[in-house]
User: Fold this.
Amino acid sequence: QSVLTQPPSVSAAPGQKVTISCSGSSSNIGNNYVSWYQQLPGTAPKLLIYDNNKRPSGIPDRFSGSKSGTSATLGITGLQTGDEADYYCGTWDRSLSGGVFGGGTRLTVL
Amino acid sequence: EEQLVESGGGLVKPGGSLRLSCVASGFTFSSYSMNWVRQAPGKGLEWVSSINDKSNYIYYADSVKGRFTISRDNAKNSLYLQMNSLRVEDTAIYYCARMGPHDYSNYWGQGTLVTVSS
Assistant:
């Protein structure tokens, strides 16, 4: 059971928009920055969003992040088949004194 | 270009030990905190341990506390994970990752597979 809660799967058609939620508590998301990672099959995770809503260099603006209270959301617009991957949210948990991840969400582009 | 290369994984029996290494290049290793994150087969990401630049702040997941030890040698641009009393449930790909200022991991290695089995 992960400390952060994500839906196991989401799906949408090419060109459409999808959102992935990440729910936590005041000890983690509520008082820390959230990051999001994309993991393509058979590869290492890749940072997509950091500090709740910032994109590293090279990440297209189709990817966006937001945070409100103890929840965060990853948004992906203009879906492409190459976006099919597992997506994870992550943050620091002050009560655990450790990093925490969501259980991951598998995106299927139909 | 920032690069992290892990090594040291392999097959080990329950109760055994392994030492993972991660060599960094392309950035000033001594200026960054570092993470170990693992992923069991078919499962999600699990944070394992973090160490700051000067090795004076170290954190462990409860699942490995007392069995694993993180360390670094800034002169060798290297991060380590000493894993003792290994259990079957420690079987995973172990990634090292460079940390940003707010606890995110912005560069990841390709991972090294640890298999604990009799």
Observations:
- Chain B has a mean pLDDT of 97.
- Chain B touches chain A at residues 35, 37, 44-47, 50, 59-62, 95, 100, 102-111 (CB under 8 Å).
- The first strand of chain B starts at residue 3 and ends at 7.
